[in-house]
Design a protein that fits this description.
This protein is of the alpha/beta class. The protein has ten helices and eight strands. Helix 3 packs across helix 5. It holds the Pfam family Zn_peptidase.
Length: 286
C-alpha cells in the first residue's frame, strides 16, 4: 500500500522502548498465544482483559528501562501514524456527511505491557480498544504471531486492517452502538450475549472495509495484493479458524468474534458498498 508522504496525525503515542516498572504478567508460551488469539482482536471491551491476565500474574517485578528505537521500529511508527491520519480523514468525512463531528482517538504503541483505564494488559491481549479512555492499544509483535503461527499472509495492509478494525470500535463508541450492545446483553444467556458480541465485532470489520473504500477514493493508496492481505488476516482470526488450530475442534456457541467467512464477508461488504447504512450486523439476531 502507498503511505509515505501522508501527513502526521498527532494522535500516536509511541511508548515502545519504555518500561513502566511494577508488576508484569507472564503471558509467554502457549497460554499467552491462546489468550492472544482468543482475544483477537481484543475488541471493544477492554475491561475483559485484566481479570483474564491477573489469573496468570506471577508478581514479577519489571525494571524501569528505556532504549532508543531501531530504524525499523521508527519506520513502523511512521507507518502506523500514516494509517491513523488516513482513518481520521475518512471518518471526519463520513461523520460530516451524516451531520456529525468525529472525535479522534489516540493510538498507543507499546512493548510487552501497558496500563489503561480498562485495566492492565500484555502483548498477549492482542490489539484492543479501551472505551474508558477512547484509545487503541497495539503491541506490534501480534502481527508476527499472526503470520508465523496462524498462517496469515502478513504485509502492511494486514496491519492497516487490524488498526482500522480497532478504530471501528471507537466509531461504535461515538455512535452509542457499544453502550446499546452492552445493555442488550443484560439478562441474556451466555450464548445470546456472545451473538451480540459477534455482531459488534463484525460491524468493526465492516467499518474497516468502509474505511478502505473511502481512502481508496481519496488517496488511491491500494496496491496489488492489499485486499488479499486483509482477507488473510480476517480468515486467521475467525473464531472457527482459531479454535480449530488451538484445540482441534470448534464450539460455535462459544464464538465471540465471528467465523472466518463472516469476518471476510463484512469487510468486503464495507469495501464494496462504501455505504455506512449497510453495516447493520445486528439485523440477523433481532
Amino acid at each position: 500500500m502507498k503511505w509515505k508522504g501522508t501527513r502526521k496525525s498527532g494522535n500516536l503515542d509511541d511508548r515502545r522502548g519504555m518500561s513502566s516498572g511494577g508488576k508484569t504478567v507472564v503471558g509467554g508460551g502457549i497460554i499467552g498465544i491462546v489468550i492472544l488469539l482468543l482475544n483477537a482482536f481484543g475488541g471493544e471491551n477492554g475491561q475483559m482483559i485484566t481479570p483474564i491476565l491477573e489469573q496468570m500474574n506471577q508478581g514479577q517485578s519489571a525494571p524501569t528501562e528505556q532504549r532508543d528505537l531501531t530504524a525499523e521500529e521508527i519506520e513502523e511508527g511512521e507507518f502506523i501514524d500514516a494509517i491513523i491520519s488516513n482513518n481520521e480523514d475518512v471518518w471526519a468525512k463520513i461523520f460530516q456527511e451524516n451531520g456529525m463531528t468525529y472525535k479522534e482517538p489516540t493510538v498507543v504503541l507499546f512493548t510487552d505491557a501497558v496500563n489503561t483505564k480498562c485495566g492492565s494488559a500484555t502483548a498477549a491481549s492482542g490489539p484492543f480498544y479501551c472505551p474508558a479512555d477512547q484509545q487503541v492499544y497495539m503491541d506490534l509483535s501480534f502481527f508476527t504471531e499472526l503470520e508465523t503461527r496462524f498462517g496469515a499472509e502478513g504485509g502492511d495492509f494486514a496491519t492497516a486492517y487490524v488498526l482500522a478494525h480497532e478504530i471501528g470500535h471507537h466509531v461504535q463508541t461515538l455512535l452509542g452502538t457499544s453502550a446499546k450492545m452492552r445493555q442488550m446483553q443484560q439478562g441474556k444467556s451466555q450464548a445470546e450475549a456472545n451473538k451480540l458480541s459477534i455482531a459488534l465485532e463484525l460491524q468493526a470489520d465492516f467499518y474497516a472495509g468502509l474505511w478502505t473504500h473511502y481512502n481508496q477514493r481519496m488517496t488511491s493508496f491500494l496496491e496489488d495484493g492489499d485486499i488479499e492481505e486483509a482477507l488473510s488476516a480476517a480468515h486467521a482470526v475467525g473464531d472457527d479458524a482459531i479454535q480449530s488450530k488451538m484445540q482441534g475442534h470448534i464450539v460455535p456457541e462459544s464464538f465471540t468474534h465471528g467465523t472466518s467467512a463472516q469476518r471476510k464477508y463484512w469487510f468486503m461488504k464495507g469495501y464494496k458498498s462504501g455505504d455506512i447504512k449497510q453495516g447493520d450486523t445486528f439485523a440477523e439476531i433481532r
